[in-house]
Structures are given as structure tokens and as C-alpha cells.
Design brief:
Blueprint: H1 2-41, H2 45-53, H3 59-93, H4 99-157, H5 166-189, H6 192-243, H7 253-272, H8 276-338, H9 345-371, H10 377-406, H11 408-434, H12 443-463, H13 470-508, H14 516-530, H15 535-549, H16 553-565
Membrane topology: Single-pass membrane protein
Keywords: Cell cycle, Cell division, Cell membrane, Coiled coil, Membrane, Septation, Transmembrane, Transmembrane helix
Function: Negative regulator of FtsZ ring formation; modulates the frequency and position of FtsZ ring formation. Inhibits FtsZ ring formation at polar sites. Interacts either with FtsZ or with one of its binding partners to promote depolymerization.
Length: about 575
């Protein structure tokens, strides 16, 4: 029982100490809140309210000020008093033990103090903003007045530099003056919200007018001084060139110059309407047109000297090309009577001759234009450049044609000499075969011989034509040479095989009695030799059996034959 009592006493002591500690904490917070409230009271809000009140505010600015004044009255007469009351009550309550009520009261007065502090800061910031806006507007009044006076002074002092734009520029300046007066009045009255709207528009209009005053004079100067002077110079230059009989082809310079003058006058209207950007675009076009006319005149001036210098050279070039064309056509006509021209040489030469005639026609027209003082030198110079280029190409083509036909006579001579050689070779081969006194000639050899003979005969016929096709003749020569070489080989083969076969048949006689196979082979070989005229087969038949009876005999007899003949044994061709 005693232990329980002791526990209760200890618990009571702990609770009591806790209450005392919390009460002490609350009293410290009350002291802090009291200090913060006293600090807020030291802010010279009343002086700032009075200072802003002396600014003669109107409109929305005045409404804003009245709201701030009401907030200040609420702070001074109600909020501070309520804070004092609640802090005093909280101090009294801190002596009791109703801790939940004490916490609620503390939170309530803390919130009130913080809200009041925020309100004071907001009122102070809004008052400062009203003063700053008023200051800025008064400064703007001063700056805009200086700017306006500067623009006005420029227009008055240099009105001659603006030409037809001056009237509308002065209208813009007058409108600026009215807007400036409105802004000044609103600023003096303190209606800063309306003044701010007017100020933005006033700044924009002032900037636009400032740009116009800067942009228009150089444009106006170009349109009234620079370009007219250049147009005057163009007219004078054109007149001088015309007096000196210069011409400009299809380009009508007086018309171009008049268009430039018209565009200058039209652009003065654009400038009068205060459209400098559009006027600048047109000015650039005018400058380009002026440069174009200058260039046209300069081109004619620059072209005359080279034209005069080139006249004699082009004339000689044309004459040379004409002479060469005449020579080429005559040569082709002569050769065409004796030879077939297979590559349109004559047609091409005639086309080139026609081109020369065209070039000469243009040249003669240009010379006449110069003589008649109607020449456009730039066009003539262009003609001369093309003429030199075209004549060079024509002469190159003429040279190629002449070179291609120049060898026809030599080719014909060489072809006739070769034909004679072919005929001689054929007769020589025929005599060689006839001198063999063979019982007959193989039909295959005769067929090939007659083919070559006919080819040679056809070549002779083609060579005797009134017009010789040398390209065809050349192809025939190559074919006949190849076939004649083959015929020579066949003739040699015929001679060698017949001679060797005859010798081997004679040599085989010594073995016919003693060797039946030799007798049989000799009989067969004789048949092939005497009746069938197959000398190579006859040689093979008898040679084979002799090598069996007397090995190496054929090789010995063959070597002896070629030694007597004085030639090497021909290599056998491998048939693929």
C-alpha cells in the first residue's frame, strides 16, 4: 500500500514539473511574439502612407492607395490591439493547467502575428511600387520630352532632306505631341495605370518616327540626287555613243532609261506614304537597272576594238577554209570517179562547205553593218568568237577526211602488185604439182586450189571496175593471203607425201618375196597411189609395215629425203 502511494506521489511530481516546463515555454513564446509585434510597430508605415497620399493619385492608382490605407488602419487600430489582448490573455492562461486550451490560444495568436507581419510587408511593397511607378513615369516624361524635342528639331532644321515625306512626318510628330500631353497629364494626376498604357504606345510611336527620320533622307537623296545624276549621265553617254554610230541590238536604251525615270517618280510616292522598306526594295531595283544600262554601253565600247582587230584574221581564216574545202571537194570528186568512198566523205565535205558558206554569210553581213554604221559590236564579237571556233573544227574535220582518202592511190598500187604476186604464186604452185608427173591430183587439193584461183580472179575483176572499193579490196587481200598460205602448205604436203610414198614403195620391193605382209601393204599402197591418188595414205600404209620389218627404216629414208630437198621436216599439225 505504501509503495502505491509513493508511486502516485512521484507521478504527481513529474506531471507538475511537466506543467511548469510547458508554462515556461509558453511564456517565452509570448515574449518572442511581443517583441515581433513591437518591431512591426516601429516600421514607418504611417510616413509612407502620408508620402504616397501627397502624390495626388487618381483612377486605379488611387483605388489601390485607398485599399492600402484601409489595410494600414486595420493594422494600426485593430490587429495590433487584438494581438495585445490575445498575448495578455495567453500570459494569464499560462498560469493555469488547461494545457489544450493554452496550446490552441498560442497557435491562434501566432497566426495573427504572422498574418499581420505579411500584411505590413505587402502594404509597404505596394506603397514602394506606387512611388517607383510615379518616379519612372516622371522620368519617362522627361526623356520623351527630350526625344520629342530632338525629333521636332530635326524635322524643322532638315525638312528639305525628307522631300514629300515631310507632311506626314509632321502629322506623326503632332500626334506624338498629343499623346505626350495626355501621358504627362495622367502622370501629373497620378493615374499611373492609364499612363502606363499610353506610355507603351508612345514609346512605340516615337521609335517608329525615329526610324523614319533616320531611313528616309538617304532614300530621298538617292531618288532626287544620285539616281537623277546617273540617269542624266546615261542619257548623255547614250547620245554620244549614238553620235558615234554605236548600236545595242534589240535593247532599246532610251526606253530602259525612261523606265528608270518612271520608277524613280513612282518611288517618291512610296516614300511620301512613309513606306521606307518598300522604297528601299525599289531603290535597289533602280540601282540594278542603272548598272545594267551602264554595262550595255560599256560592253559595246569594249567590243569595238577587238572586233576591228579580228576582221582581217577572220576573213583570212574563212578564205583558207574555203580554199581547203574547194581542194577537198575536187580531190573527193576525182577519187570518187575511181574509188568507192564508203564513209560519207563527200557528204561530210559538202556539209562542211555549207557551214563555211553560212559563216561567210554572217561575216559579210557584219562587215556590211560596220560599213553602214549599223553594227552592234558585242554581237559581232560574239560572232567572231564562234566563227574562229567553228572554223577550227571544220578545218580539223577537213584534214581528217583528206588524210583518210589520201592513201587510196598508194593502196590501189600496192593491191595491184599484191594481185600480180598472188597470180604468180598460183602459177608457181601449179607448175610444181605438174612437174611431179603424178598419176592424178587429189580432189580435195584441186577444190581448194580452184577456190583460191577464183578468189584471185574475183580480186582482179574488182580491181578492173571503174570505181574501186578499196575497203572491200583490202579485206579480199587479207582473205586471199591467208588462203594462199594454206594452199602452199597443202602443195608442200602433196609433194612430200607423193615423193616419199614412191621411194618407200621402191624400197619395199626387197621384202615382198620374204614378207607377205610387206607384199600386201605394197599392193594396197600402190592402189592408193596409182588409182585413188591418196598419197598421204599410201605413204602411211607402206611406212607402217616397213617399220615393223625393218625398224627405223622409214625415219632414215624420210631424213634422207628432206636432206636432199634442203628443207626441214614439217611439223605435224595437231587437230583439236
Amino acid at each position: 500500500m505504501i509503495g502505491v502511494l509513493i508511486g502516485i506521489v512521484i507521478l504527481a511530481i513529474i506531471v507538475y514539473l511537466g506543467v511548469l516546463a510547458y508554462q515556461q515555454r509558453v511564456r517565452k513564446q509570448v515574449a518572442a511574439l511581443t517583441t515581433k509585434k513591437e518591431s512591426m510597430m516601429t516600421i514607418p508605415l504611417a510616413d509612407e502612407i502620408k508620402l504616397v497620399g501627397e502624390m495626388s493619385l487618381t483612377g486605379h492608382s488611387l483605388e489601390k492607395y485607398e485599399d492600402l490605407q484601409a489595410d494600414y488602419t486595420d493594422i494600426k487600430e485593430h490587429r495590433f490591439e487584438r494581438i495585445d489582448q490575445q498575448l495578455s490573455q495567453l500570459t494569464d492562461d499560462s498560469r493555469g493547467v488547461n494545457l489544450p486550451q493554452l496550446r490552441q490560444s498560442l497557435n491562434k495568436v501566432t497566426q495573427l502575428v504572422n498574418e499581420t507581419d505579411e500584411l505590413i510587408q505587402s502594404v509597404q511593397a505596394d506603397l514602394a511600387n506606387l512611388q517607383e511607378v510615379d518616379k519612372q513615369h516622371r522620368q519617362a516624361v522627361h526623356e520623351l520630352e527630350q526625344k520629342y524635342q530632338g525629333l521636332r528639331k530635326t524635322l524643322l532644321a532638315k525638312n528639305f532632306a525628307f522631300g514629300p515625306s515631310i507632311d506626314k512626318l509632321e502629322e506623326r510628330l503632332s500626334q506624338l505631341e498629343d499623346d505626350f500631353d495626355t501621358f504627362t497629364q495622367l502622370t501629373k494626376e497620378g493615374d499611373h495605370e492609364r499612363a502606363a498604357d499610353v506610355l507603351e504606345q508612345l514609346k512605340e510611336d516615337t521609335s517608329v518616327l525615329d526610324d523614319l527620320i533616320a531611313d528616309i533622307p538617304p532614300l530621298y537623296k538617292d531618288l532626287t540626287v544620285t539616281y537623277p545624276d546617273q540617269v542624266k549621265e546615261l542619257k548623255s553617254g547614250y547620245q554620244q555613243l549614238s553620235d558615234q554610230h554605236y548600236h545595242f541590238g534589240e535593247m532599246n536604251l532610251p526606253d530602259l532609261i525612261q523606265k528608270i525615270e518612271d520608277r524613280i517618280n513612282e518611288n517618291l510616292t512610296t516614300l511620301k506614304d512613309l513606306r521606307p522598306e518598300d522604297a528601299q526594295v525599289v531603290n535597289d531595283r533602280i540601282a540594278n537597272q542603272i548598272d545594267q544600262v551602264y554595262d550595255l554601253m560599256q560592253t559595246e565600247l569594249d567590243s569595238k576594238s577587238p572586233v576591228d582587230a579580228n576582221l582581217d584574221g577572220v576573213a583570212k581564216f574563212i578564205a583558207h577554209a574555203q580554199n581547203q574545202s574547194h581542194t577537198l571537194l575536187n580531190e573527193l570528186d576525182r577519187l570518187g570517179q575511181n574509188y568507192t568512198l564508203d564513209h560519207q566523205e563527200l557528204e561530210t565535205a559538202r556539209e562542211l562547205n555549207e557551214q563555211i558558206r553560212t559563216i561567210d554569210g554572217i561575216y559579210q553581213a557584219d562587215v556590211q553593218a560596220i560599213a553602214d554604221k549599223q553594227a552592234t559590236y558585242s554581237q559581232i564579237l560574239e560572232h567572231q568568237e564562234h566563227q574562229n571556233k567553228d572554223l577550227s573544227q571544220i578545218e580539223e574535220q577537213q584534214g581528217q577526211i583528206l588524210k583518210s582518202v589520201a592513201g587510196l592511190v598508194d593502196e590501189e598500187r600496192q593491191a595491184r602488185e599484191t594481185l600480180q604476186q598472188f597470180d604468180f604464186n598460183l602459177h608457181s604452185l601449179r607448175r610444181q604439182v605438174e612437174n611431179l608427173n603424178l598419176p592424178g591430183i587429189p580432189q580435195t587439193y584441186l577444190d581448194y586450189f580452184f577456190v583460191v584461183r577464183d578468189e584471185v580472179a574475183q580480186l582482179a575483176t574488182d580491181m578492173d571496175q571503174p570505181q574501186i572499193d578499196m575497203e572491200r579490196i583490202t579485206k579480199q587481200l587479207l582473205i586471199i593471203q591467208t588462203d594462199l598460205d594454206t594452199l602452199k602448205e597443202k602443195t608442200e604436203d602433196l609433194i612430200d607425201s607423193s615423193q616419199l610414198a614412191e621411194q618407200l614403195l621402191q624400197y619395199a620391193n626387197r621384202y615382198q618375196v620374204s614378207h607377205e605382209d610387206v607384199a600386201t601393204a605394197s599392193k594396197k599402197a600402190s592402189q592408193l597411189f596409182e588409182k585413188d591418188y591418196q598419197y598421204a595414205q599410201a605413204l602411211e600404209t607402206i611406212a607402217t609395215v616397213l617399220d615393223e620389218v625393218e625398224p627405223g627404216s622409214y625415219k632414215r629414208l624420210e631424213d634422207a629425203y628432206y636432206n636432199r630437198k634442203g628443207t626441214q621436216k614439217p611439223e605435224k599439225k595437231t587437230e583439236e
